[in-house]
User: Fold these one by one.
Assistant:
Number 1:
Amino acid sequence: MNSPGLIELFVIVFLFWILLGPKKVMEGARLLGKAYREFRGYGTGIVSENLEIDEKEKIRASAERLGIDTAGMDTAEIKTAMLNQLSNE
């Protein structure tokens, strides 16, 4: 049995686009792209979202080592508190 050709794949994608609407198809494509990037990142050990989380955790850990209570503070507030703490020393 033959696999579908290029024209058949275009027809299938077009039918999905008509049935689901362009907004849902674009959302699905975005999710597939994100999943592919994440999967590809596991091979190299780098996941883009984890880098952002690691940076926030590094800032929080540094602030807590300086004795700053970081509860309820966002990153910008923590950085400001760290600068104030370091300038006072």
Number 2:
Amino acid sequence: MFSKSKCPKCGARNSKERMTCAACGAPLALAPAKGQPAEVPLEGNPNLAVNMWLQTRMFLLVVLLFGILYGVITGIGTWRGAGSAVIYIIIAFAFLGIQYLIGPSIVGRAMKIKWVSEKEEPQLHQMVAELSEKANLPKPRVGISQLAIPNAFAFGRTQRDGRVCVTRGILNLLNRDELRAVLGHEISHIKHRDMVIITLISAIPLIMYWIALSMMFSGVFGGRRQGGGGYAALIGLGAFLLYFITNLLVLYGSRIREYQADLGSVNLGSMPHHLASALYKLVYGNARFKGSKELKRVEGVKAFFLNDPSQAWSEIKELSQIDRDMSGTIDYDELMELRQKKLRLGTGDKMMELFTTHPNMLKRIKHLSTLTV
């Protein structure tokens, strides 16, 4: 049977025999909407089914990407010899290895991070310590970015090198519960080793790009002397196509990791409507920076953010339909109402999502409505 000990609306503890919360009257067992996955009645992790589905999608994506790489490298190795094929892999992973090592320092400079002590930000440190303990992680370093644009991000080479940061803007925008939900999302990225995973699969489009350039160059300038220039140019064109396709697949993988981090925040004890409300506020907060120098400054590192600030302006219109009472937040009842609705995204919104590192915000909040505490 479903666990009813914790209210999904207010978080109050109730006896397992109760059908409604003694504190707020909210139902303690919620029926799933038509077409939505049922809440999973497992004591350890009520969202295990969602997690398994996300992990399966990610596994299949990784298999597909490395399958493409294997096919291309095998084909080139057969045609030009194994040595010329392997060199592309060595160069790509060497380049990404350097990027992986120096990446944290680059992010730190771009985001204007100041690392803060427990004396300076006791509440922030306390929330990070509690969440990392729940996630069975060493406590990450805590920093505050001096950027005014409201957001949060996490990075680091390993779980022991984890770093969680918030901007000045987000500290002035969110309440304590919303900020805790955001920090839970970022700590989940560290727990899931997302930086390592995305860096690893990003090597594949890079390899395709170098193969395409090499083959096109060989076909145009070396074809007459060596023969087979037409074949080389054709392979180069095919590699360019695969470069485009694998880039889209990596972006899809990034969106899966965002969904999984949202789930991770809920599994760490945050209410889904608190994270939904935080995302809603961030969209409005980021939209105010449209066309600003600060938004342009973070363009190269926005993949680290909780949401994509450059998409905020276009997301405002579709999100306004959720906030029925125009309070500027998304409460439990509004999130549950969204759960019963069927989303209708325009073709433009669907196409735009293909080229972004973050899911469409309305879809993302809809996904949160299906999760349980």
Number 3:
Amino acid sequence: MNRRQFTKLLAGAGLLLAGCRAGAAPSSSTPERKDSMQTTTQTYTRTTPIETVRNDPVFGDYGRLIFPVERSYYSGDTLEQLHLTYYNNIDPDETVDICNTLRQRAADGQTIFYDIYTEDEKAADPDKADTGLFYFKGNPGAKFSICNAGGAFAYVGAMQDSFPHALELSRKEYNAFALIYRPGAQTACEDLARAIAFVFTHAEELEVDTSGYSLWGGSAGARMAAWLGSYGTASFGEQAYPQPGAVIMQYTGLGEVYGNEPPYACVGDRDYIADERVMRWRIETIRSQGTPAEIEVFPGLAHGFGLGTGTSAEGWLDHAVAFWEENT
């Protein structure tokens, strides 16, 4: 597929996602769990205002990127009240855990955020100032993953769709990054290509193994992971870097089949944005061509369930990690 064909594909994706925006279901939060998963010194709580986290001096300028820059796509004043457009099953305890983990690591002197563009590049294109990589470090020398949140290419829903995944992967000793990108299918893919280039060129500093890395994504983020996995970084303005060892995709109705990267996919059977039948067809087609591919469909779940804590999807990340390891 050439770049012109890909541009048409992106346009089609935009129309599809625009339709999703019109009929999105409201998001919901799960009740408080007594078995708190907090393992860090607790500074924030469920009742901490979102603005307190965003403006915490420990984060410097990048604190504004922890929650969506496009503020019309989220609601709620406190961490437990956070609602993200298109998302369901948001777990307040996970939100608090993520914020406390980021804060503790930053306070301990760890670098938890990296710019992917130079100051000159950001001056030439101010939208690039709202990009970067949050780093959830695992074991030095371990493989890495880049997690990409969805948001219909209108915003980046990282607190439900990439931060939780990156944190869990780091606790499994992998080095995980969560990308904050410019909304828009083309610009998002360019930012992911730059993020891959950044990790490869700074691998020694970041202490990561670049062999057999994985790309993760939910909804629009899953399309990004699939497109970069298939077309490669050279198709989006960077030099050519190795393809990922696996692509992990959640709830996206991408139907095109190209490339040979092994995909794992999962979706809920009540997802009215990403059709499970389209996802099944794609996985079955890829598998029929001799490439390893897996899909799980979880009962009772709508779009954007994230880690699926406390739902029928809980534990899917372990299956995805096993798939990644089996194929690298």
Number 4:
Amino acid sequence: MHVIGHDRREFIAKSFCLAGATSLAGCGLRSAAAQAQSAPRPIRRSERYEDSFITERKPFKWPGNNTLAVWFAPNVEVWQYDSAFGVGITPNPTNYLPDVFNYAWREYGIRVGLWRIAEVFDAAGVKATVALNSQVCEVFPKAIEEMKKRSWEFMGHGATNSNTLDILAEEGVQYCGDWNNDDQPYPLKVKSGKMFSIPYCNEINDIPLYIRKGYTGEQYLRSVIDQFDALHADSSKQPRVMGVPLHPMISGQPLRIKYLERAIAHMKERQGVWFATGSEIIDAYQSSV
């Protein structure tokens, strides 16, 4: 009997504990529900630009009565040998240094891939707008001279791939491709000077397509052509811009270069297409709106 009574008291005590826990859980649920019903925190948005729907804007035309502006942006960069920073072709989960395999793969771009891309641009009669790391000027001055000979344009890609809009505007830079939220250029708010966003079209960037998603050349080509065809059709209602971001160590590889050639050939078959540099597009935009 003593044992039974003890067990009974223990059972009752546990029951009260469980009841208390259930009650606390119930309070917690009611508290969470009350919080869910309270006013949500205001949405924080960027204050760099005005809201504008493309359907509300006044149509205009690019030079030559064209409706779609296309610009090519090869990224010309330099990396530290004793750093694991940078896109890679093979995993380096421990950040082992020196990461010779990935470092050498990236260096292929400036040694070979860029010039293979340059030959394609030369044959097609288009000029590039180079997204340039400033330190390339110090490390590869001959490459800078070769790009200048082709009248390529240079846009800032930072010393270490970083930038600030206000500083860039103060220094006279007038456009950037970071704000991928439109098919047209638009003004950005800066403390002084002028700054415009230009569509960079990161959806067809060769890094995410080839490296991160593992696309084949045919899949990359299909993506670029689909992007172009849709923008070309849209441009009959409102002018559009298509950027083509490239990386020489990726698109400049022998197995991929023909897909860039075929993409450009497809674009050149269409009417109303203007191949331009970034600054030409921004200048034309400012004179048209």
